[in-house]
Amino acid sequence: SLKPKNTDSFNYSRYHKLSEIYSFQDMLVAENPNLVSKIVIGQSYEARPLSVLKFSTGGTNRRAIWIDTGIHAREWITQASGIWFAKKIVKDYGSDPALTDILNNMDIFLETVTNPDGYDYTQNSNRMWRKTRKPNPGSSCVGVDPNRNWDSGFGEPGASSNPCSETYRGPSAHSESEVKAIVDFVVAHKNIKAFVTIHSYSQMLLYPFGYTSAPSKDEAELHSLAQKAITDLASLYGTRYTYGSIIDTIYQASGNTVDWTYEQGIKYSYTFELRDTGFHGFLLPAKQIVPTAEETWLALMAIMSHTFKNPY
Amino acid sequence: KELFKGHQVLQIIPKNDAQLAFLKDLEDVLEFELDFWKGVTAVSCPVHVRAPFQFLQLLKRILKRKDISYVPMIDDLQAVLDEEQKEIELFAR
Predict the structure, then answer these.
(1) pLDDT of residue B90
(2) Packing angle between helix A76-92 and helix A97-105, nearest 10 degrees?
(3) DSSP letters of B34-65?
(4) What is the Cα A51 distance to its own chain's centre?
(5) Which SS3 state, helix, strand or coil, does residue A268 take?
(6) Which residues of chain B does A126 touch, with a Cβ-Cβ cutoff of 8 Å?
(7) What is the pLDDT of residue A1?
(8) Is the omega angle on the peptide bond into residue A209 within 30 degrees of 0, that is, cis?
(9) Helices A76-92 and A18-31: angle between axes, nearest 10 degrees
(10) Which residues of B touch A279 (CB under 8 A)?
């Protein structure tokens, strides 16, 4: 076995097992004790830790940016990109002035495997699994779509009440521990100013709302920032993204993550749909991990820099 | 480990509102075990759907009857998954 000894020798161009991701996180913390720490915000249904990497240069309860990847288990490019982002942050801190400025004033929280039970299930049992792994009483179908489980338009059109559907919303808002852990963290923190949740594979950058066609009060700003972010993204490899509100750009989606975060007062709430530029769908070849992460990083930097420069 | 032998992923592009509405209805039919990788959004926007072997021909017949054109996006899903697995194992070695 060629187990990486450090995060420099970690292979960012391949998909990794959950245990390897956990090891990566621990190595990153050990190598950068003054910048990175790991916090556990809860437990998955199958009792796995919900680990979040905290990038901080000090201070108390600073303004913060949240990024999560892998809430839908089979979207492997997102977990892989999350790992790359983590390494990128420690590499660029101190050398990239924009990121250094951000981190000297704000904290970044990064949850790389938001749905670990689902991810493990895709690795070992069913590569096409999307949802959580909690059984549904009275049904043989397992799991809830964690991107329909948030208390924002919960139960309205744009999610399913059938446990066998891929968009099953769950029995109640925040019924999934993977969702509840983030909810509790965000509410307790009180100072998160940008929230980016990352999916694949439609090449989109979306902002609230998904459950209603009513525009958010910050729509103009969110729209122009999205435009800037996807322009920056496209500057690297020419990958074309669309952008707009969830309901206008894809379809009605109730109980989704960023509708909830926006309604909690986190103005810069975005959801990404990363690549597939070809005909791969959820089976994006591993050689595309780094290019995808690299271009996405440019868009993330646009959102993070704007958040830093526009306090509210 | 669940196998996806004979599963195909089809790309369907609805040409008009009637086709769009039909595909939207199809999204809610759980009996066919269709897995919409890319959901139904608007006319001219591609829909990607994974169809299991046992319902693939039926789905194709229905689409043909409704004059909805499709192309296979992934011909043999299991073959792609095998390839992915092989690559993972190769790297691990």
Answers:
(1) 83
(2) 90
(3) -EEEE---STTS-EEEEE-HHHHHHHHHHHHH
(4) 13
(5) strand
(6) 1-2
(7) 53
(8) yes
(9) 10
(10) 11, 73-74
